[in-house]
Structures are given as C-alpha cells and as structure tokens.
Write a structure and sequence with these properties.
Elements (H helix, E strand, L loop, with lengths): L15 E3 L5 E3 L3 H19 L5 H21 L19 H15 L9 E2 L4 H26 L4 H21 L7 E2 L9
Antiparallel strand pairs: 1-2, 3-4
Helix pairs in contact: 1-2, 1-4, 3-5, 4-5
C-alpha cells in the first residue's frame, strides 16, 4: 500500500524521477511520458464523471482504477525480473481488456450503425468522453513507442487500444444512444 506523509520530496528538482523499480530517469523519458499521459487521461475522466450517473458512472469509476493499475504497470520496467522484485509488480491483465470488450459490445448493441464520422460533441458527457478518447489514443501511441524501445506489458497496450474504443461507444450512448450524435458532413463548409 502507498503511504504519502510528505507531498514534496525535492528528489525531482533536477529534472529526474524514480521509476517503479527505483531507477532514476529524466522526467521527459518515454516511459514517464506514457504513464504521465495515462494520469492525464484519469484527470479528464474525473471531469467527465461530473456529468455521468448510474451504470456509466460506475463503469467510469472502474476505468479510473484501471488507469492507476496501468500507470503502476508502465512505471515498472524490466518485466523479466518481476519475480525477483521486493513485491509483485502490478501488471494489467487480459481480464481487464475483456471487461472493456464486453461493455463495448453491450453498449454498441443498442446503437444504429454509423453512416458518417462523428464530430466530438453533443451532450456534456459525450464531449468529455471524446476528449478522453483522444487522450487515450495519445497514451496508446506513447506506449507503443515505448514498447518498440523497451519492455512493456502487451496487455497494457491492448487495454489502451480498447479503452479509446470504449470511450467512443460510451460517447454515442451519452448522446441518446447515437440519436444526438453530431455527424460530419464532408465539404459542408466549402464555398460553392
């Protein structure tokens, strides 16, 4: 369990931070960028939840917890030595991905097929979920870049990929099951 008695430590004053295994790296290290973006996504999700209620709010709370798991996973390199760690590192697992897939399928079952791309917007919740979708995509890009250069749990990358899909479908649900989606009209603003 984490215990935070003192918020500032001064250990990062020279531009470095500690990873989950104790290694110190630059605060702009690709690993820090990846888990920092998952933290940013979690903050956006907190704002989105101001507009959510019921089952969708419950599901968003589960995702917020998942995002802390994801950050813990991404901040801990060297998966090959997980068994020698002082405590078992927290890693994303397939069940977390499967839960998202199940929820996507359930939400999507009530939506009409799309015939156009959707512009981010509609209800306040939908607009915030579209912001979450785009930040999740950025986190995924950073995680895949990190995966090319080092060891990253494949379930972490898959989770981010599914999560952006989840936000897209949930935004449609938040727009009256797609009835209030704002559709893109190609070329609508061109002069004739």
């Amino acid at each position: 369990m984490v215990v935070l008695n003192k918020i500032y430590t001064r250990t990062g004053d020279k531009g470095t931070t500690a990873l989950g295994n104790g290694d110190r790296v630059a605060k702009h290290d690709p690993r820090v960028m990846a888990y920092g973006t998952s933290d940013e996504l979690n903050a956006h999700l907190g704002v989105a939840r101001l507009h959510a209620e019921g089952e969708i709010d419950h599901r968003l709370s589960l995702i917020q917890n998942d995002l802390f798991d994801l950050g813990a996973d991404l901040c801990r390199p060297d998966m090959a030595n997980d068994s020698s760690a002082e405590y078992p590192p927290l890693r994303m697992i397939e069940a977390q991905v499967k839960r998202l897939e199940s929820e996507i399928d359930e939400m999507n079952a009530n939506l009409a097929a799309l015939r156009s791309f959707i512009l981010p917007g509609g209800s306040a919740l939908a607009a915030h979920l579209h912001v979450c979708r785009t930040v999740a995509r950025r986190a995924e890009r950073l995680a895949t870049e990190l995966a090319e250069a080092g060891d990253v749990n494949a379930h972490a990358v898959t989770y981010l990929n599914r999560l952006s899909d989840w936000f897209f479908v949930a935004a449609r649900v938040a727009n009256d099951n797609g009835a209030s989606d704002v559709l893109w009209v190609p070329g609508a603003t061109r002069e004739s």
